[in-house]
């Protein structure tokens, strides 16, 4: 435990004592030192991530680091009041509350049983053949994804409990042949949830965080529909490809079955007729999706989510006690509220602009498309060094955004979308890359060596699809 505390503190202290780089103020350099300590703390986790972020914001605000000398000298500037206002600004951020509301959505899916019912319906319809079963798993995740900003809640809490029972129907338990049905299903579920995390902006919380960072850094606004349309060719291709490619690279010995659909039908019978609350949850999901797609100029996405949550409370789909007791949602609220403020501070003190200009200077002579491809690839591959997508987004995205924005001729909207699209799919790379990864890594069906091998193969395939299909598509959309 001691080293988890010592590493970020020492790193921040050493950085603060180094000479200030030319072009930065002493105040800005101290801010960078504290920010670096927070990011390393998110990686070493001496405390829960939300606590690390809260402490970081407190230290920065108490020391007055977010304010330049010019701001301090402005008439009427009062440090104590301004410091508190800055520290709490993240809790008034619409993106942060959209993430929170989406967690309540996910709770509604789970509490009403609608998520499980949708998965079982897919399994009953497509489970006669193992390949069809793989597509049932993939399509189930895709149907739930727009309303669950946590792939852990979606895949680990809704999909995994359903598919975990299927191998038992064949007498396949953990520790048996790794190329059996269990390994196939588990990998399809894991790889698919990484794809769907990129397909919808509301399918992964860091997607929304990146868009907020992009709005602050570049002024670019991306709508829910623009995100979906931008990733649609890549997402459709990969969702269709993952079950088939897994079937080829990691073929199960069992190819057909009548037992799986029977089991799914039995599980559905045990659930009984669809309940009023399930119907209500489905109606609210459809309403929200429709407003996110077709009414962006009339009503804000966060307000749509707030209305839906209010209706969930009024109709009894969830209770206020359920909301209050949703520990992950409140943790994420505090975590993202502090991360948004800390990342914004980098821009306030001038670090992002300074870093962007320096990086752009090193890339002089290369075409904007080459620079964009290199930056996106670097951003993606760097995820091998991060245990979690949120920490990666907070630490690296501002740097990449600043570097890209400083390049003359850079199609910045395309660049922002590519960075955003890479967040979900990079989760497939390692057993620690994203929330559900440790569950599937430790489920006992996939050998550890195979997990790393498949992670690399699918990771490179996902990146190739993003750059080979997604980039030309986005450029064509921009014309």
Overview of this protein structure:
The protein is an all-alpha fold. Among the domains are: 1-87, no CATH class; 94-327, no CATH class. Helix content is 73%, strand content 0%. Helix 18 (351-362) packs across helix 20 (389-405).
Say how many strands there are.
Answer: 0
- Helix % is over 70%
Structural class label: mainly alpha
Spatial shape: globular
Largest sheet data: none
Low-confidence stretches: 172-179
Topology:
Layout: H1 2-17, H2 26-44, H3 49-62, H4 69-73, H5 79-87, H6 94-112, H7 114-126, H8 130-144, H9 151-163, H10 181-199, H11 205-218, H12 224-249, H13 259-271, H14 276-294, H15 301-314, H16 320-324, H17 327-348, H18 351-362, H19 368-381, H20 389-405, H21 412-425, H22 437-441, H23 448-478
Helix pairs in contact: 1-2, 2-3, 2-17, 3-5, 3-17, 6-9, 6-11, 6-14, 6-15, 6-17, 7-8, 7-13, 8-9, 8-10, 8-12, 9-10, 10-12, 10-21, 11-17, 11-20, 11-21, 12-23, 14-15, 18-20, 19-20, 19-21, 20-21, 21-23
Notable traits:
479 residues
How is this structure best summarized?
The protein is mainly α and 479 residues long. It has helices at 2-17, 26-44, 49-62, 69-73, 79-87, 94-112, 114-126, 130-144, 151-163, 181-199, 205-218, 224-249, 259-271, 276-294, 301-314, 320-324, 327-348, 351-362, 368-381, 389-405, 412-425, 437-441, 448-478.
């Amino acid at each position: 435990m001691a080293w988890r505390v010592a590493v970020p503190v020492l790193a921040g202290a050493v950085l603060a004592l180094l000479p200030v780089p030319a072009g930065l103020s002493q105040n800005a350099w101290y801010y960078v030192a504290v920010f670096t300590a927070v990011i390393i703390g998110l990686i070493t986790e001496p405390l829960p991530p939300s606590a690390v972020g809260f402490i970081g914001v407190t230290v920065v605000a108490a020391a007055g680091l977010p304010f330049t000398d010019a701001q301090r000298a402005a008439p009427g500037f009062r440090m104590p009041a301004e410091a508190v206002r800055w520290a709490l600004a993240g809790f008034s951020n619409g993106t942060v509350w959209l993430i929170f509301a989406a967690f309540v959505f996910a709770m509604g899916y789970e509490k009403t049983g609608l998520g499980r019912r949708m998965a079982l319906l897919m399994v009953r319809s497509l489970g006669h053949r193992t390949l069809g079963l793989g597509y049932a798993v993939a399509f189930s995740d895709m149907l739930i994804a727009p309303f669950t900003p946590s792939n852990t809640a979606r895949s680990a809490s809704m999909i995994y409990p359903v598919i975990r029972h299927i191998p038992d129907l064949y007498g396949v338990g953990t520790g048996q042949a790794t190329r059996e049905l269990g390994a196939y299903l588990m990998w399809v579920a894991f790889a698919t949830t990484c794809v769907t995390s990129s397909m919808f902006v509301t399918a992964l919380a860091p997607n929304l965080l990146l868009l907020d960072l992009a709005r602050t850094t570049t002024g670019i606004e991306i709508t829910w529909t623009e995100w979906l349309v931008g990733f649609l060719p890549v997402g459709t291709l990969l969702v269709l490809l993952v079950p088939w490619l897994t079937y080829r690279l990691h073929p199960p010995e069992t190819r057909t079955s009548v037992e799986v659909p029977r089991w799914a039908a039995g599980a559905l019978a045990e659930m009984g007729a669809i309940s009023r609350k399930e119907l209500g949850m489905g109606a609210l999901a459809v309403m929200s999706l429709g407003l996110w797609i077709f009414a962006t100029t009339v009503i804000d996405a966060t307000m749509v989510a707030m209305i839906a949550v209010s209706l969930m409370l009024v109709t009894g789909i969830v209770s206020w006690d359920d909301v209050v007791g949703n520990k992950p949602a409140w943790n994420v609220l505090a975590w993202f509220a502090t991360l948004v403020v800390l990342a914004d501070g980098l821009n306030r003190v001038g670090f992002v602009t300074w870093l962007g200009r320096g990086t752009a200077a090193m890339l002089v002579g290369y075409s904007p498309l080459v620079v964009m491809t290199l930056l996106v690839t670097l951003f993606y591959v760097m995820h091998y060094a991060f245990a979690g997508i949120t920490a990666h987004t907070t630490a690296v995205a501002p740097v990449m955004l600043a570097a890209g924005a400083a390049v003359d001729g850079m199609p910045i909207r395309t660049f922002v979308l590519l960075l955003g699209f890479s967040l979900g799919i990079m989760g497939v790379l390692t057993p620690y890359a994203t929330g559900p990864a440790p569950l599937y890594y430790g489920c006992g069906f996939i050998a550890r060596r195979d997990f790393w091998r498949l992670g690399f193969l699918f990771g490179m395939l996902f990146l190739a699809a993003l750059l080979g299909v997604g980039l030309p598509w986005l450029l064509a959309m921009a014309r």
